Automatic annotation (TrEMBL):
PANTHER family: BIOTIN PROTEIN LIGASE (PTHR12835), BIOTIN--PROTEIN LIGASE (PTHR12835:SF5)
Gene giving rise to this polypeptide: birA
Keyword Nucleotide-binding assigned: yes
Chemical reaction(s) catalysed: biotin + L-lysyl-[protein] + ATP = N(6)-biotinyl-L-lysyl-[protein] + AMP + diphosphate + H(+)
DNA-binding region: 23-42
Organism, as annotated: Cytobacillus purgationiresistens
Keyword presence, rRNA-binding: no
Coiled-coil residue windows: none
N-terminal signal peptide: none
Protein name, per record: Bifunctional ligase/repressor BirA
Keywords for the protein's UniProt record, in alphabetical order: ATP-binding, Biotin, DNA-binding, Ligase, Nucleotide-binding, Repressor, Transcription, Transcription regulation
Domain BPL/LPL catalytic as annotated: residue spans: 71-262
Family membership noted in the UniProt record: Belongs to the biotin--protein ligase family.
Length: 327
């Protein structure tokens, strides 16, 4: 009950941003006394919200805290589905593990799991993901598309486009995508995406989409082995970036792209992905588990498979590989 009242309160502030809400209006909305309204405001202050209270005008939120709590994300969130149910923890071993559990417990589509720190975050090919506290976006999203399992890889590409669009809008920076789903800035990794599927034989039961974005790390925060290959938004922009705003914009971009995909298919997403891709048209080396393929990256198929043409003119379809760009 308490969380539902908090949702109503933050939705009201979101819909009346920069305007005052009177104590009586809030009391009527929540169905509580003016004294209870004051307690709600004090709880928001304790969480890090900066509030202004003006006699005969009411309350308004001036700024929020540095954390990415459920309340921080809800204040300003404009989605219809994604992020309407939020599971927040300070420290977790992996947001993916929690999202899998919630999915098995019938969590609704759009439920997100967000944490300030992951101790056992994972990337593609089960690599460890470096996720220090209060610096990045460590997020898992539960989707339940009515699709056959073979279309699941397309959702990873949708996520990559959504991340790029969100970073562009929030920071003005221009990231690029390295196949299949690494997002880069100035050649260094900024984002990792891990999509896992729960399915029956003929349909997807759920997609657990994990997204890790390096936001406010400083150069000295990275271990030596990562300094040459990873960066953060704040390093590239030269100033701190609001993690809560980035999550809000990311969820909105993802929701919009997901809706387009379900209504019109993958082709519009494919065009967007290829427009952001750093490797298309370039000579690359694709290192797979069975060997390396060198040639020109022609594009991707509708299932997200990379198409490479080697020097003899033969085309190769690459399902999983590490990519190195030659030129």
């Amino acid at each position: 009950m308490q969380s539902e009242l908090r949702k109503k309160l933050l939705d009201a502030f979101t819909n009346n941003k920069d305007e005052y809400l009177s104590g009586q209006a809030i009391a009527d909305l929540l169905g509580c006394s003016r004294t209870a309204v004051w307690k709600h405001m004090e709880n928001l202050r304790k969480e890090g919200f900066e509030l202004e209270a003006v006699r005969r005008k009411g309350y308004r939120i001036i700024s929020t805290a540095e954390k990415v709590t459920a309340d921080e994300i809800r204040f300003g969130l404009k989605t219809k589905t994604l992020g309407k149910h939020i599971y927040y923890e300070e420290t977790v071993d992996s947001t993916q593990k929690i999202a899998h559990r919630l999915s098995n417990e019938e969590a609704v589509e759009g439920t997100i799991v967000v944490a300030e720190e992951q101790s056992s975050g994972r990337g593609r090919m089960d690599r460890k993901w470096y996720a220090p506290k209060y610096t990045g976006v460590w997020l898992s999203i539960i989707l339940r598309p009515n699709l056959p399992p073979h279309k699941a890889p397309q959702l990873t590409l949708i996520a990559a486009v959504a991340v790029v669009q969100a970073i562009e809008e929030v920071t003005g920076l221009q990231p690029e995508i390295k196949w299949p789903n690494d997002v880069l800035l100035n050649g260094k990794k900024i984002t990792g995406i891990l999509t896992e599927m729960q399915s029956d034989a003929d349909r997807i039961v759920s997609i657990i989409m994990g997204i890790g974005i390096n936001v406010n790390q400083k150069p000295e925060d990275y271990p030596n082995e990562l300094k040459e290959v990873a960066t953060s938004l704040s390093i590239e922009k030269g100033e701190k970036v609001s993690r809560a705003e980035l999550i809000q914009v990311l969820l909105l971009k993802l929701e919009n792209l997901y809706t387009i995909y379900l209504e019109k298919g993958f082709y519009p997403i494919k065009l967007l992905w290829e427009g952001y891709a750093i490797s298309i048209g370039k000579n690359i080396i694709a290192r797979t588990l069975t060997g390396s393929i060198e040639g020109k990256a022609l594009g991707i198929k509708d299932d997200g498979v990379l198409i490479i043409e080697d020097q003899s003119g033969k085309t190769h379809h690459v399902y999983s590989a590490d990519i190195e760009i030659n030129s």
